[in-house]
Amino acid sequence: MGVPFLKRFQPSDAEEISSRLSRAGKWSFYFLIIGIIAGVGSIVFHYLCLLGMHWFMDFFAGYVPPSPAGEHHLWPPTGRPFNRYLLLILPALGGIVSGWIVYTFAPEAEGHGTDSAIDAYHNKGGFMRGRVPIVKTIASAITLTTGGSGGREGPIAQIGAGFGAFLATRLKLSERERRIMMAAGISAGVGSIFRAPLAGALFAAEVLYRDPEFESEVIIPAGISSVVAYCLFCLVFGWGSLFDTPPFEFTNPLELGPYLVLALVLVATGIFYVKAFYGVTALFKGIKIPNHLKPALGGLCTGMIGFYFPQCLAFGYGFAQQALFNELSVSFLLALAIGKVMTTSFSIGSGGSGGVFGPSVVIGGAMGGAVGRIFHAIMPGVVTEPGAFVVVGMAGFFTAVSNTPISTIIFVSEMTDSYQLLLPSLLVCSVAYLAAQRWTIYEKQPKNRVASPAHAGEFFVDILQTIHVRDLVEHIRKVRMIPEDMRFVDFKRYFAKTKQHYFPVMDQGGRLNGIFSSTDIRGVLFSPEIEDLVVMRDIATTDIIFTTPEEDLNTVLLKFTKKNIDSLPVVKTDDHNILIGMLNRREVIAFYNGRIQQMKGQETAA
User: Fold this and answer.
1) Are residues 491 and 562 in the same domain?
2) What is the pTM of this model?
3) Are residues 307 and 269 in the same domain?
4) What is the DSSP string of 65-106?
5) How does pLDDT run across 289-342, given as a tens digit for each residue?
């Protein structure tokens, strides 16, 4: 008996395994391609940024900001004297060119690209125009290398997301598959350019929602693409982390007190950042000038700040590197943090192109360094390494403004190659997330999967499947059953007095054996010559579509729509000929809406 059984099932099992392997191989190939394109995009964009910094900031204005340890200038400094006045107008000139490119070819490429990618994921089926990544690359490189304050993650996220969406569209994949491939592109771009592949994968899955919720189906594809892009980027620009850090260690629990104060400082700074950013954005939207000129005006405001505080222009990662080694004063760090908030708001909020994660790293690191130095002066025996506060400040600040506590902790750990500060980072990020959850720099984030249009259909079905007909017992209406041998002329007199639209028909034993609606009697109603001859069994259909108390509302709604009927007979589960009552479609929909409002009320209270 055993051998025939095995012979019978082995081929099908082998076919199923082969099919699964083929499907896995196909999708892995797609994510590999996305990783390659995103990695090449990161390399090209990084080269453009280095080239732009050399020609614009150095050659024209004689300004060469420091670089983080993991990055180096491709060309030696020109040695030109520093000219503040050129630095004043350079961001405005960059804004003119960037604004013209964006608003001429792809207006959706304005602002910080990650938010646009989040919006495309939830509201546009993962669709992005193919020209957006190209326009975003050029415009962002011009904005950021002429002194505009912003990060590289926004442009490169949109580059990766754009190619993922393009590939899925070309392959005629479903919206769900296109969204996954778009998220994989985000991960590949961000993970490669910041040399943090694990964080890139987690970030792409976590940044999509305001609540601490992951898009689980994104993590594995994002991981594959992120690793590939990271390896390509590092093959060109070298391996290692973005920042170099001293060997920080957390050994004194008393240090958690100052870290708790740091968390509150970061929350306050984060709220200021979000309000300033979107306040400036609203201000520029209200200015009655052509859109392509607004980035120039924002660039002029940025240049005015940079005239006095040049450290607030461009990327600023080199100053975060110096803060890690405790080389900057408290006043310099505070000016860097506050100035960076304002220059980023003017550069990106006016319609310029760039990201908001990069500035957040600098702002958080500067505030962390300032708090660390102050506590080091007050209690040197407890806070022995102010630079450690820079690392934790980076993580805590971006958590406060992005609602991404998990991926941000991993991000900063990978960027700084500093894993000994996970405990204080966890404390600061948790407090920052809880205290600043109402504010986010990514305004397109929905609260959770329930609030996402991308999952609306899934949750509609899921919620309906948790509700059963028995839960609507108060809405099941008792109706009069019509005897099967009743003459139509007698029913006509009853019909004139009732508001009932569906009429169950019973046999002589009171058991359900048919049903008809007010529509079904039209033919007889207007043929008075036959109404004495017709009995109700002649009109009723015996092919009854019914429901039972155990069925869920998803099944019930499918039955309503099957033949476009408005009321269903509810019968006993163990005897389908015993009628309990009639259930109206309107009552089902109203009950579902009430359950949704109840769930939303519970979320609001929580």
Assistant:
1) yes
2) 0.75
3) yes
4) ----TT---SS----PPP-HHHHHHHHHHHHHHHHHHHHHH-
5) 998 899 999 999 999 999 999 999 989 999 999 999 999 999 999 999 999 999
